[in-house]
Amino acid sequence: MKKLLLSILFVWCFVSFGNAQFAEKGFSFQGYARDFEGAALGNQTISAKFSIYPQGKAMEYEEAQSLRTDPYGVFHAVIGSVKPVEFAKVNWSSANYWLKVEIKANGGDYVEISNTSLLSVPYANAAFNGVPSGSIIPFAGPKNRIPAGYVACDGTEYSATVYPGLFAALGNTWGGNGTSTFRVPDLRGQFLRGQNDGSGVDPDAGNRFAKNGGKSGDNVGSFQDDENKRHNHGVTDPGHTHGYDDKYNRHERSDNANDRDVASNGTTSDWRTTGSSTTNISINSAGGNESRPKNAAVYYIIKL
Description:
With about 300 residues, the chain is mainly β.
């Protein structure tokens, strides 16, 4: 088989982002195939294999695509479209990445036709509108519709080698062994709070606790239980007095020691106070099972 060559036309181009999910993202590669004599391989089906790897390290992503050339041998591919979930795991910010391109036609063997360092566009793609690994956002859909490139903040433990970008961002902040595994935060039913960071705004920061092996104290990854601020409740108790009528020797109760009573014969008598007491007042509990503001439930998801 004649050796294949490749000429790059419009090397790195964005695929339109629009409102599509990250699962549909990649970056465009366009070129044309020709044989060793320079003749275009027009109107042919070729197989192109794209391999992405950090400089001097093992391959991190690889895919093959069956492509059709136009009459002039030009072909186009969206790298990352075949295995979008695996493509989303490439941590573009961690190293200088290279792209190796191999093609074959007519059932032959793959021939390497390009192996070059990637330029800036794929790295901008990785930023995905400025969302770095470890960013937490609310997601309004159900768990089974979380977009590719994100996972739920449900405390799951992941492999550091499978998700190196997120591991580099989190470490064992939220749990895991800190070397081969790590946990994402478990934010189910939780409200988020900015770390105190020595500001004194969170007066109980030193008592924050760890969950799933994460951090405690004044650190990202720590938790607090619900609490009400210490306060007092005032109670007014007017009390009452007991007295007796010295004319008729009647023992009565009056809420005012200066009250006067009219007897049956039309005479009045004075009350004399014999003592006073207070009313035993108890304060009953009220409310629900927690202190909370009005809220709506969402999933918190984290960028891989």
